[in-house]
Design a protein that fits this description.
Strand order of the largest sheet: 2-1-3-6
Helix content: 55-70%
Oligomer: single chain
Number of strands: 6
Mean pLDDT: 82
Number of helices: 14
Length: 337
Amino acid sequence: MRQKFPAYYRVAKDKLIERFDDLVFVFDASALLDVFRLKKESTEEIFNVIELYKNQIVVPYQAAWEYNCNIHRVLNEQLRNINSAEKTLCDFVETLSAKRQQPYISQKAARLLKQLQNQITRDFKEQREYVEGQLIHGQLMNRMADQLDGRVLTSFSEVDIKKIEEEGAKRYQEKVPPGYKDEAKDSNRFGDLIIWQEILRFAKENGKSVIYVTNDAKEDWVIRENGKTIGPQYALIEEFYKETENAELLFHIYSLEWFLTFIRDKNDSVVSEETIDSVREIIQRSDNSVSSLTRDKQDAAVLCGQESKETIAGAEEKQSSDSPLEKMKGMNADEKA
């Protein structure tokens, strides 16, 4: 029965690990951007993972565009979060320190609270300086670009983009994944579908199994039961088999957390449980990644000042020297991963 309905059967993790060297990890913008939402130490660990396995990593051109258009907004968002948290902490300590309001707080407890505040304030200061440094000097952004050199897929032509969008309008009406949850968006409506078509093209041309690493937990990508992500939509797996014409290939979806856990199962020395826990918290704080992910994708076209089809179609010919994509201009992964 498995041969007749392959999309409905999952591959056990130990089997995936056995096939590890044949897997390609396709990164979405959401996963790349969330790396910059972590504290310095965790970000460094994930960069080390990317460096170690970069020959098995590719990024769709559409995803690279969304990443470039959003990275500065994400860093500024981190600064706002730090400032807001610091203010909340100061207000809390000030309230507890007011003896007229809280006379039952002992002097010892008050001293301990002050010490804790001082330590957390130092942590905030260190992280703030780190994020500000990224905005000004872009060390990690440049490091990401260097690590992904040669790993960004070639963009579709303008003609191909138009065909994908025309097909997408029909797919969205029939709720065919992925992307139909973005139907109401004013911009970048077909971004997910363009990414999907890039994945299918890459897998077919290179004969590679794919694990798509994304923090997009919307139902037009994954099946969710009782708040838990089960795996890719069956329709996606069926289309993957149909387009690649190779029943030996696999398609699966991992969040950044699952990807790091998978890597740790393969090599427990490259990423810590603490970093995986931090990634999990990032995803949970953003309501299973939907709210921040939607903003990341929708803001891409707005921040870059144009619709996705205008940015991506024939992008190599159109982009200017100061384009956000200039850093990744030569990063084409036409060669086999």
